[in-house]
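Risk register update: the risk of archive-format incompatibility is retired. Evidence:
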Amino acid sequence: MHSAAMQDRDNPPATGPLSDPGQQRDSKGMGFCGAVLLFLSYTLIFATFPFSLCLCIKVVAEYERTVIFRLGRILEGGAKGPGLFFIVPCMDMIRKVDLRTVTFDVPPQEVLTKDSVTVAVDAVVYYRIYNPVIAVTNVEDADRSTRLLAATTLRNVLGTKNLSEILSERESISNMMQNMLDDATDPWGVKVERVEVKDVRLPVQLQRAMAAEAEAAREARAKVIAAEGEQKASRALKEAADVINESPFALQLRYLQTLNTISAEKNSTIIFPLPLEILAHFMHKPPL
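Archived output:
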């Protein structure tokens, strides 16, 4: 059961041109001319055996699948591989499809944002082919088509966003691009697994303006913080003055502490302490 489920996932039912029942019935038969050519080809293979094995045996790697066209029609069973398979020379044409995840860079796109700012944005897209038959029959070049669609989708998505949204909401923009690309490439047998916005380049004048704005905002915050500090320091000094005013001994201790600090910092200075009683006499004496 597990191997059958894996095979169904690797080769899901075809959609698009091959989904019409009438066309599938037509692809089962090659007609009289095709049968004659097939008989002649098998006769030639048996006549040149074993040298014909070099042209009839093909090998497909684990990460590859091969779509076989016999006289322009896809053989029943869908894509072949991995391993060995048999083809008929001169009648079969093979197309190998790589199922590994492919990564490509979307070239930088000049985008005019919603607020009329021109920015250059590039991205990275990860995708893989999940249905080789559809990828070969429904689109001429799945890789090139996916690359072109990714570039146009990037411009369309960013054109609906403001500059601030582009700079701050990269993850949501990436998810939006992935969903749009996945829906558009599903008929091609392509699964877009991940999209990442890699870089956003702003004009030089805009960078300078944003730097000046950020610097002015930082200076404003610094002034506000300094003013708040001055306010808190003033309140603390007022509370300390109230405490000292209530106790004369506290003023005496503060006076002695100040003298000790001055004498420790300037050793060459001789300090003569003045009694606070004399200062108190002058402080309470009314002016003349």
